[in-house]
Amino acid sequence: MRLWSLALKDDEIAANSRTLLTGREPGLVAYYPMTEAQGGQLRDVTGRGNHGAINGAPWVALDAPIGRQAGEPRGEAMVVAEYDTIGQRPGGTAMMALMRRAFAVETARGVRLFAEQRVEELDLRWVGNAQFQPTLLGYIEGPPPVPSENLTMSASYNGAASVELSTSDDVTFQWNRSKDEKLGNTTDLFLGWETNSKFAALPLGIGTINDLAKVRLGFKGAVSHTTGSTRASTISAQSSLKMIDRLELRGTLEDQPRFPQLGSRFIPKNVGYALVVSGLADVFVTSLRGSGRMVGYEVVPNADIPPDVNTVSFLINPAYTMAGSLDGMTGSAPTSDRFFAHVPELRAQYGSRYPASYYRLQEAYDLKRQIAEQDKRREAYFFNFNASIRVLGPVGDDLMAKEIDKGEAPGAVTVRRQEDTPVAGTPAAAADSEALIEAAGEQQDEYEGRAAERRAQIEQAFADREQLFTANRGLEQWQSRMEDLRIRAGKRNIVNTYVWDANGGLHTEQQQFANSVQHNIGSSASVNFNFGLEAKFFIGVKGVELTTMATMQMSQTLSKTVTNNRGFGLGVSLSGVESRGVTDHKDRPLVPGEKVGRYRFMSFYLEGATQHFDDFFAYVVDPEWLSGNSENARALRDTRGRTNKAWRVLHRVTYVERPALANFGADLRPLPAAPAAPTVDKRVESLEQKVDLMLKLLQAPKSP
Q: Domain ranges in the chain?
């Protein structure tokens, strides 16, 4: 017998009728399983003490299963599964966890399922946050490459090298108003003679008198005077946003030296850095109230918090690049028997042409060439742009739009892996190339559509669309259209070169770029007033003429200007890379051919492209780590279904020098041993002998 404080559903009643309860089910007030089989008490197993008394009724044993319906066969199978769920308490917002049970019962007509059966309430503990539905914005493929064979002189080299991508967005709003007021007068004076010569025409005695000539001679002068006032005001409001993505070297000291000739090395972590936009979720742990044993680990999305930027660290595929190994080698041996055991043999056959770890010369110089070609196209676009359009109105706007769109649109700079490049000239290569081009076109269309949808979601999460509309609606269409010039002619990719020398030298070539957009909207008005007097006085041919005018002028201009500046920079620090233990004071190698004395590498920033997104999952991230159950791996797996144009920072080593021949040809024959310097005792003994000799000479008898 069971007493409940809430109404049960039909399927709950059916499921509960087939099994014994625990007594801790939510809403269960009293539960009498009647399993005592003796005595006069009917025990309540809910723990509430609602026991009952039996008066005069005997106990009767029943062998029928609980809830068996008439006609059902005995021995049917029942499968039971228990799980935890998290939800809100009825009538409130507080969270609660329940243990639930699901039954699968064999019946004559098949299997009947009873799900969501409440068993008992669980303890709920909040342990932190997790990322929900992240979108990949970009990633850094590890800190700058460093040689682990050099990292043997200290216990820690954390922070010895770092890479930093900086982005700055500056916005300036400016209002200008100026007002001019001017008052003045002008006086003209003429003093002189003026005479007219006339003649008369009298045909038939009737005629007219006409001017024959007019002569005006004298002095004329003018005087003008103007006074005025000017007032102007400029109001500006500025805001700046600087974003820095930085990744430093991290690692641990190895327990047992893998290469005894080098000693214990500091092993860098093969870790990368991803920037994402993600929602927020709460992480809960549920446990049994009685024993405290953990039941489940639940991630509950929080729909009240908008998506925001976050970071995810990930392990890099060691078959792609391995931190601490510049070229797949550590000294003269392969860094890893699993991934680079074949490197010494293939390097002996192909030299620098064989890629391993960061040492990928073909990829490095192909990327550098792509960026250089893009810079040349930007320069050509600028000089070929026709800025002499003299047509006004809509026709002029159309001509300018056509001029902006002239030429080939800039494409993305992407990595062309040497491993994925077929041998040129073979039929397989030609067929593969055609297939790849066709497949790439189809995939590109699909990616663009999916990327556009996700970018719209991100913009919705980060910006108020109504505010953006209000800010831009004052611009004319041609002004907004001119912003496309920044896409056509603006630099968007970076290649930096670094050369490190164990003797303290460091050469750097670093690029930066910035794009600026400025829009100005304004109006002007002016008013001019002129009034005065004119007087003429002539007596005969002599006279004076005077003209005076008063002037008043008022003008006003009002304008507003918005300026947007965006800058990018990529920097690398190698301040902590170890140079001790490489060569001695005479620049001779201490461990010939084992430690790096000089190396060169390039660091790239590549603008967002869907291929970078695909490359990330194809070969950058470690597939074994990605299939794991860590929070970071789960978050990155969730980004795979949301294709986006992701930016990328990567490194490529192009030169490695391990000094081994500095003593080649030196005279190694041992030098003759130098005579030993006399000790103090020897010197004392020699002096004593000399003193004895002098005494003997003094004591000897003198000859007559």
A: 2-134, 136-169+244-281+306-519+567-657, 173-199+211-236+525-561
User: How far apart (Å, rounded) are the C-alpha atoms in residues 73 and 84?
Assistant: 32
Q: Which helix (H) or strand (E) holds 489?
A: helix 484-489
Place of tokens 């010895």: 160
Give the global pTM: 0.72
Which tens digits make up the pLDDT trace of 410-431? 888 899 887 666 544 444 444 5
Task: Give the residue among 105, 440, 133, 564 at the shortest CA–CA distance from 312.
Answer: 133
Contact 151, 161 (CB under 8 A): no
Q: Which amino acid is at 543?
A: G
Listed residue (612, 637, 615, 614) closest to 626, CA to CA: 637
Does the CA dihedral 141-147-149-153 come out positive or negative? negative
| Side chain identity, residue 99 | M
The confidence band for 105, taking pLDDT boundaries of 50, 70 and 90, is confident
E strands in 249-349: 251-253, 266-268, 271-287, 294-301, 308-315, 329-330, 333-334
C-alpha torsion angle, residues 65, 68, 74, 75 (rounded to 10):
-60
Residues 6 or more apart in contact with residue 34 via CB below 8 angstroms: 1, 42
Query: In the structure, what pLDDT confidence band is assigned to residue 447 with cuts at 50, 70 and 90?
Result: very low
- How does residue 46 score in pLDDT terms, banded at 50, 70 and 90? confident
- Taking residues 609-621, report their average pLDDT: 95
b/e 589-606 (16+ beta carbons within 10 angstroms → b)? bebbebbbbbbbbbbbbb
Do the beta carbons of residue 114 and residue 14 sit within 8 Å?
Answer: yes
